[in-house]
């Protein structure tokens, strides 16, 4: 039976481990933290990712978390709509809704799909050798050196595995923006999902199940900066306290300790490949992207099921190396071919949107807002159609 080691217990790593297990692999997932997702935030799961999750039986449980069926769209800082659409319009076009849920809820669903003993928390793992067609990969873990037919590196935006496979100057760059996320209680009257654009500032609101709300924001800031005294809620109130109702009131309900702050990075040029030997990168390790399209986790989920699909093909057509996975490097080349172009497109579109929302000059901002408003006048599906390239994706089907 083929064996895989997964480095990193985020959404991508968990999906990869679950997908490989579903294909008959033995898996060991190493996460350096003592718990999975110890702090709360939300995330959006698009129709593309829901179809990917269907391949491991997790799609319907995620769909059940869908909490809003009204209208949403893009606003100005004063609350006036620039563009709006029905949530149902998007669901009808793509066959599925955009589900916004707690990140921890998806983590739990994915972790439940791992076999007993597969998850190793508080465990570091580093790639020692990627291996080749005749030699397994080697990983150094907290428990010692281990070999694997496949190593999946889902070790984040500052991926040590990426550096090991592609040494040299880091391919990621700071965008000049930082992002905040928080989950709080929703007001009794409910909330309308919206993303509001100001001059260089963005504030998003998404209702969640259980009378909660997911808030996010971006603003220009020096890399590595933090709020005075570490009070990130106070910084959000300073930046957005004069925005449309209910933004100020929502911020007042946020627990200061519940605010997460992270700098936003992007990759100007894609990696030459997402693999080397028997080691493969996925998610932020392969193609870090800004959060503007809400596709970071979704693309990692896509990566995971496509990787499992192609890697499993190697176990069926192995060249008799003793592991039955002699064709794995070639299968990983197929994975790169399947994912590199698509993720580069999504990565660049997301960065373009980040640059639009980061505009600060009065004239450029007015031109941007006018363009969005005019596009909205083309009909209720005008905004939705912009997602066709992303949301119409479908996972590969068996056999490989």
Question: Explain this structure to me?
Answer:
The protein has 400 residues and is of the alpha/beta class. It has helices spanning 11-22, 47-54, 59-63, 87-94, 103-111, 160-165, 232-240, 247-253, 296-316, 328-357, 362-376, 382-385, 388-391; strands at 3-7, 26-31, 42-45, 71-76, 81-86, 99-102, 119-121, 125-129, 137-141, 144-148, 150-153, 173-185, 194-197, 202-208, 212-220, 260-266, 275-276, 279-281. It starts with a strand and ends in a 9-residue tail after the last helix. The model is unreliable at 319-323 (pLDDT under 50). Residues 3-165, 273-350 form the FAD-binding domain.
Widest β-sheet, arrangement of strands: 5-4-13-14-15-12-16
State the low-pLDDT regions, or none. Answer: 319-323
Query: What is the H level of CATH, i.e. the homologous superfamily of the domain at 3-68 and 103-172 and 267-352?
Result: FAD/NAD(P)-binding domain
If classified by CATH, what would the architecture of the domain at 3-68 and 103-172 and 267-352 be?
3-Layer(bba) Sandwich
What gross morphology would you assign? Answer: globular
- Count the strands? 18
SS field, number of helical segments = 13
What is the name of the CATH class of the domain at 3-68 and 103-172 and 267-352?
Alpha Beta
| Biggest pleated-sheet summary | 7 strands, mixed
Structural class: alpha/beta
Radius of gyration equals: 21 Å
Kindly report how far apart the N and C termini lie.
Answer: 18 Å
User: CATH fold name of the domain at 3-68 and 103-172 and 267-352, please?
Assistant: FAD/NAD(P)-binding domain
Report the portion of residues in β strands. 15-25%
Please, what is the average pLDDT?
93
Share of helix, binned: 25-40%
């Amino acid at each position: 039976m083929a064996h895989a080691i997964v480095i990193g217990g985020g959404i991508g790593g968990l999906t990869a481990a679950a997908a490989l297990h579903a294909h008959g692999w033995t898996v060991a997932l190493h996460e350096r933290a003592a718990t999975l997702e110890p702090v709360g935030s939300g995330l959006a799961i698009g129709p593309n990712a829901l179809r990917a999750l269907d391949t491991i039986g997790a799609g319907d449980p995620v769909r059940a978390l869908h909490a809003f069926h009204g209208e949403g769209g893009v606003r100005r800082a004063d609350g006036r709509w620039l563009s709006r659409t029905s949530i149902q319009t998007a669901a009808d076009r793509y066959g599925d809704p955009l589900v916004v849920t707690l990140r921890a809820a998806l983590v739990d669903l994915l972790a439940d799909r791992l076999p007993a003993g597969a998850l190793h928390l508080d465990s570091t793992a580093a790639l020692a050798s990627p291996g080749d067609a005749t030699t397994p990969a080697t990983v150094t873990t907290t428990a010692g050196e281990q070999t694997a037919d496949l190593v999946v590196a889902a070790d984040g935006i500052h991926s040590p595995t990426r550096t090991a496979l592609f040494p040299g100057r880091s391919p990621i760059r700071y965008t000049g923006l930082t992002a905040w996320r928080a989950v709080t209680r929703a007001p009794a009257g409910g909330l309308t999902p919206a993303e509001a654009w100001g001059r260089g500032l963005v504030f998003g609101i998404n209702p969640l199940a259980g009378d909660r709300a997911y808030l996010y924001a971006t603003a220009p800031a020096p890399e590595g900066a933090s709020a005075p005294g570490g009070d990130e809620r106070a910084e959000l109130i300073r930046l957005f306290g004069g925005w449309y109702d209910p933004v100020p009131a929502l911020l007042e309900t946020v627990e200061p300790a519940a605010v997460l702050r992270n700098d936003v990075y992007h990759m100007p040029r894609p990696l030459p490949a997402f693999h080397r030997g028997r080691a493969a990168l996925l998610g932020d390790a392969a193609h870090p992207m800004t959060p503007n399209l809400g596709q970071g986790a979704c693309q990692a989920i896509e990566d995971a099921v496509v990787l499992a699909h192609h890697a499993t093909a190697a176990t069926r057509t192995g060249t008799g190396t003793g592991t039955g996975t002699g064709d794995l490097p070639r299968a990983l080349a197929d994975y790169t071919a399947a994912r590199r172009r698509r993720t580069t497109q999504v990565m660049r579109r997301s960065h373009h949107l980040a640059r639009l929302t980061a505009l600060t000059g009065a004239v450029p901002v007015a031109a941007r807002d006018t363009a969005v408003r005019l596009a909205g006048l083309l009909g209720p599906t005008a905004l939705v159609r912009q997602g066709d390239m992303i949301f119409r994706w479908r996972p590969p089907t068996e056999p490989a």
